TrEMBL record:
This is Histidine ammonia-lyase. It comes from the Bacteria. One of its GO terms (cellular component) is cytoplasm. Its EC number is 4.3.1.3. GO terms for molecular function: histidine ammonia-lyase activity. It catalyses: L-histidine = trans-urocanate + NH4(+). CDD domains: PAL-HAL. Pathway: Amino-acid degradation; L-histidine degradation into L-glutamate; N-formimidoyl-L-glutamate from L-histidine: step 1/3. Belongs to the PAL/histidase family. It is found in: Cytoplasm. One of its GO terms (biological process) is L-histidine catabolic process to glutamate and formamide. It comes from Actinosynnema pretiosum. Keywords: Histidine metabolism, Lyase. InterPro entries: Aromatic_Lyase, Fumarase/histidase_N, HutH, L-Aspartase-like, Phe/His_NH3-lyase_AS.
Amino acid sequence: MQHVELGPKALTRDEVAAVARGSAAVRLTGEAREAVAAARAHIERLASAERPTYGVSTGFGALAVRHIPPDRRAALQQALVRSHAAGAGPEVEREVVRALVLLRLRTLASGHTGVRPETVETMAAMLNAGITPVVHEFGSLGCSGDLAPLSAAALALTGEGMVRDAGNDLVPAADALAAAGIAPLRLAEKEGLALINGTDGMLGMLVLAIHDLRHLLDVADLTAAMSVEALLGTDRVFAADLHALRPHPGQGRSAQRMAEILSGSEIVASHRGPDCNRVQDAYSLRCSPQVHGAARDTVAHAETVADRELASAVDNPVVLADGRVESNGNFHGAPIAYVLDFLAIPVADVASIAERRTDRMLDVNRSHGLPPFLADDPGVDSGHMIAQYTQAAIVSELKRLAVPASVDSIPSSAMQEDHVSMGWSAARKLRKAVDGLRTVLAIEYLTAARALDLRAPLKPAPATAAAVARLREVVPGPGPDRHLAPEIAAAEAIIRNGAPQSW
């Protein structure tokens, strides 16, 4: 089994995805254990001091002015977790919760939070046992951490609340922990706060979105190239020297990919001669590298932010190397919230340009010889007419999802927390947007493949032919109208599973 080590080294985005989506286990390094023990010694020293320390011997938020006597501090931590596990709405996806737990564990293992070694070990054991706390959609404002989602995870560690076990059955947390041989935690000073005061949910969703978008932008280059080929477009606009005049790295990458994908196409070659009257293609064909490339560069910026966050230790108060325990504002989700919102814009735009290419293939006045709506018997058959409607509906929704969440802020905690990031909300809408983009590209894939089949006997490029052949393993070629919904789902599944190689 693959292991991801938790220690002083920052996690990579691939490691997060491997734990969240796969079967990779986590393992604490010796350095992590030493750092955790050293930080805990500082917390225990402060717990016995007369001077109050926030989160150790005081209440929380607007109640931080209240000093808590030693015999009530364990109850304080458990009460914090119970009261803050106040989420509502549908369950959050398993992969998101696993990413959230992993990233909180990473911060705990950094030695900057002051939890006990057994707390870190228990959290790692729960993750490795495949126990996934039930986290609800609503409850985080993206400041003071993802409080309600992280509290649900912390509550499960103490044997309370509900979880999904390794078989995905909904069971009480106490039963799942017992079945895995894990003793429930009894929280000590500072631990409840340390377990819930991070940006781990929104960061986990950012990492997973980046992972998906890197793949989907490769898919977009392929489906765009298929549409250019099917619409008798030119490949000359993808030449490297043209894109060197505007040296955005993403644009150059997409142009290179589209040129390579179209290499060897009989269809493109058939209208390349001096008799071709196609002076310029429509923007949705000619400008695909510019749009896809700008999206690539936006993802690259998001990767920079994600990588910095993966090297961060987010908690409040935080334990410093010299033993000081200081309050801070590093739990504010603004850096993550901004890029989550930013990514929703190119997602909507890449989907929008794909829908425009699809529409051209269906319009007899713009498709250069293809039948209306690619129908077998136009009039009797409607072809892909309504598939484009589905694209249009999704694109319209994606434009709404591109409205930023991070510009909103609702004060909370009696005005102590008077400016929040709404980063969790930005992450939730980005996940929906990524799913929508996948469906839009699946419909372009389905439509372009049908159009390329209708260009026979001219042969498409080897790369686009391979993409058509993969689709034809599960979706028949042109013919009378069929139930299209399963075909769209089949095309989506091919994209989701990462095949063919041309992606």
